[in-house]
Amino acid sequence: MKRSHLLAGIGAAMLIPSTRAAALAPAPFVPLYAGVYAWDDHYFAWLPHHPIYESFEVMTIRRGPMKPLVWVFFTERAAPKHQVHFYNDADVAKGASATFAQMNVSGARFEDGVPRPIRIAGDFAGIGPLVFEVRFAKGTTFRHAGLTNQSGHNADRFVLLFYRDKACVTSQAALRIGGRAIELALDPGTLVAYSQDIEIGIIPFGTFTGKPGDTVRDAAGVHAFASTVYGHTFRCDYGSPLKPDRAHATTYAISLDGYRALTSGTVHLEPGERDIVLRYVPDMPHWARAYAFTVSVSRASGRLTIASASS
What we know:
Structural class: mainly beta
Strand order of the largest sheet: 14-22-21-20-19-18-17-16-15
Largest sheet: 9 strands, antiparallel
Radius of gyration: 20 Å
Number of strands: 22
Strand content: over 45%
Helix content: under 10%
């Protein structure tokens, strides 16, 4: 699958569309606020004995003639499992409210369908000098991966749909911080999981103004919501049309590009004097049931405001 180039300003901590206000008169009914982003490679390792962080991850994306963008992040062990993010591009780091880190990155050339070894060395603020290296045994093959459990990561900040098209594992990996070897673990006999062709859907929590995406609508109501970011589309389809002027419930299913119905459930709509409240209750996959969320839509004075929160 051909991936889009990632432009400056996109980052894991802020993987959301622009919150720039736009005057809408009259403001349409929009039932969701979301975005989607794509990456080429993902490397993941558990840190079973690190005192602060439970996992270490690296993601990369090719950018034509520019050097690949590299995103390194750690996830805290304690709930709500916040993350610390670093990028090798100062502009991207600034736009993502993350930290820039000068990284020396080497590895195999980009080739779809082939696991890519990587070596990263750099000094990461608050972490220390770091070296991460991954290699793969000859003949390593991929398997289908699919949607990944959010596992509580940043559960107070967003709903995360992390889809990996294909993946494999390796035991040839090492992480050193401050010159000290950090124990890695995944499954017995393996240390790092590697994936290619990653789609990340985000439903951020907070209050947002402006046009968050497009809707498919007719006289019957809203049939679908879609947000397209750099050629990739987050889409939520509704089983029956949503009408903002009456209380009702229907099913919904969320897709990322061609990956259809990755998560689904029931949405309950309740109109109010000021806001229209929608409560999304997932039922598939089973782990998504822990990530119900509420969307409040206000169209006062011709301005669309959407507030999303965990429920």
